[in-house]
Amino acid sequence: MNQSADQNFDEMHKPDGSIREAYHGYNNWLSKQDASRMRRKGSEAESVFRRTGITFNVYGESDAEERLIPFDMIPRIITANEWRRLSRGIEQRVRALNAFMYDLYHRQEIIRSGRLPERLFRHNAAWLPQMVGFTPPGSIYTHITGVDLVRTGPDEFMVLEDNARTPSGVSYMLENRETMMAMFPELFTQVKVRQVSNYPRQLAKSLAACAPPCAEGKPTVAVLTPGIYNSAYFEHAFLADQMGAELVEGSDLRVIDGRVQMRTTRGYRPIDVLYRRVDDDFLDPLTFNPNSVLGIPGIMDVYRAGRVTIANAPGTGVADDKAIYSFMPEIVEFYTGEKPILANVQTWRCADPDSLKYVLENLAELVVKEVHGSGGYGMLIGPTSSKREIREFRAKLEAKPDNYIAQPTLSLSTCPVYTRKGLAPRHVDLRPFVLMSPEGVDITPGGLTRVAMKKGSLVVNSSQGGGTKDSWVLDD
Predict the structure, then answer these.
(1) Cα angle vertex 39, ends 33, 44, to 5°?
(2) Does residue 108 share a domain with residue 257?
(3) What single Pfam family name could you report for this chain, choosing any that match (predicted)?
(4) Reduced to 3 DSSP states, what percent helix, strand and coil does the chain have, rounded to the nearest 5?
């Protein structure tokens, strides 16, 4: 059932209107601020984002113009105790995902055990037979992971999605914090917030730790981008700059003497670690899509020879599959021997006849998603859909049920946004960013909070009108 905002867990206000513990310090500061100053700061933030070039493209729309992602000045705040519990659950999940990737491309013990049906990956385009039997340097598949979390109560955080293919959004997390510190420097002297600015350094260190054995001296790290017309190009350029890494396109690279090398003013120079923001299908035209001009011919041969690290490893997109997601409790327990600390959202697999029957009978109350979908596309939110939309989606479901999963319409938590009329609750989610290397797991405190800027909307994706907030984790 779709619930109104006043029935949702409000992260700042208790039902009686008093302030929750996490927001005490911030509210003391906010109550002393002049409304005209806050409105002025909001306009300044928009100017900063536009000047910096923090925009994105929406594919498939006729105007296809660059858009500014809305930024809200009211931070989303998490206490130190809440974050400790979340961190344990996130680390447990990411370690299980990495072990799952290794198993899928080796002995497939989880399939043999009967815990996971083979059909889930045998016909899954994200599963790459070219990776079978190969172990990436350091046995790391999921170098960078984004875990999407939603909150439904005081101690109720659940995982909504796993993003292991090419998780995006970290640049917005960093720019949101920098903008807040520039606008309200005095605020950060009054409220002790854990920093996120060291993420690029941690990313560079983590990637370097995954360099192949042939690397000599300090490993050379490069960011592979599809180019300036990609919707996330700002982030690619931003991270390369912040890491002190090279930003390269496929045309800048070639295979020479069994190494992937990049063109420089002094000739070609070997690359040890390639942080790729290019999908698997476009990575190597000799192995995957022969028409690709975004990748490097022969890179998969170099990779399988253990002479370059690709982050994330090709084939990790299996973990993004929403049908695989529905088995994550079993996956976590199988590889860690522990019960999951973070719960999944209840999920009906439409490939199962009984589940499909239930979903078709309750479409008006459920959220239905494509198993390979992302960005808020290809989904139905039953309670906010018209009878015609439901009827059309029903036909899609009946035609290809194994392409969909369904979930209840969650009572997502809300955080306040700043409007001209004052604070107003809006639904949010959270994407913490997780780095993994042979040296361990590093979780940036907080992550990217995405917010549905429209009243009552449950869709937080930027492509669907969502915005972002600065995410604070308080120091003890």
Answers:
(1) 110
(2) yes
(3) CP_ATPgrasp_2
(4) 35, 25, 40
| Domain shared by 361 and 322, yes or no | no
Residue 243 belongs to a domain: yes
Pairing of strands 448-451, 221-224: unpaired
Q: How is 287-306 classified by DSSP, letter by letter?
A: TS-TT-SSS-TTHHHHHHTT
Residues 95 and 441: beta-carbon distance below 8 Å: yes
Q: Are residues 135 and 265 in the same domain?
A: yes
**Residue 188 and residue 181 in contact, taking contact as beta carbons nearer than 8 Å:** yes
CA distance 459 to 353: 28
Least confident interval from 15-29, 412-426, 455-469: 455-469
- The side-by-side arrangement of strands in the sheet containing 273-276 is 246-248, 221-224, 273-276, 309-311
Give CA–CA dist 189/401, Å, rounded.
Answer: 54
Question: Are 332 and 351 in the same domain?
Answer: no
pLDDT band at residue 57 using 50, 70 and 90 as cut-offs = low
Query: Got the DSSP string for 4-69?
Result: -GGGSPBSSB-TTSPBPGGGHHHHHHHTTS-HHHHHHHHHHHHHHHHHHT-EEE-TT-SS--EEEP
Q: Do residue 260 and residue 382 come from a single domain?
A: no
Beta-bridged to residue 348, according to DSSP, are 406
Q: Does 69 reside within a domain? A: no
pTM for this entry: 0.92
How wide is the angle at C-alpha 264 spanned by C-alphas 261 and 266, nearest 5°? 110
117 lies in the same domain as 243 = yes
Q: Is the pLDDT of residue 64 over 70?
A: no
Q: What is the CATH number of the domain that holds 202?
A: 3.40.50.11290
Q: Which amino acid is at 56?
A: F
Residue 181: partners with Cβ closer than 8 Å, 6 or more residues away: 188
Total structural domains within the chain: 2
**DSSP-derived secondary structure for 388-428:** HHHHHHHHHHHH-GGGEEEEE-----EEEEEETTEEEEEEE
Over range 185-204, report the average pLDDT. 96
Residue 155 counted as domain residue: no
Token pair belonging to 282: 């476009």
CA–CA gap between residue 178 and residue 146 (Å, rounded): 21
Give the 3-state secondary structure of residue 437. Answer: strand
**3-class state of residue 72 by DSSP:** strand
* 62 pLDDT tier (thresholds 50, 70, 90): very low
Residues 75 and 72: their CA atoms lie apart, in Å, by 8
Specify if 329 maps to a domain.
Answer: yes
Whether residue 59 is predicted with pLDDT greater than 50 in this model: the reply is no
Q: 357 is in which domain, residue-wise?
A: 346-408
Residues 393 and 244 occupy one common structural domain: no
The residue written with tokens 């974050």 in the block is 83
Closest C-alpha among 406, 425, 422 to residue 414: 425
**326 and 353 fall within a common domain:** no
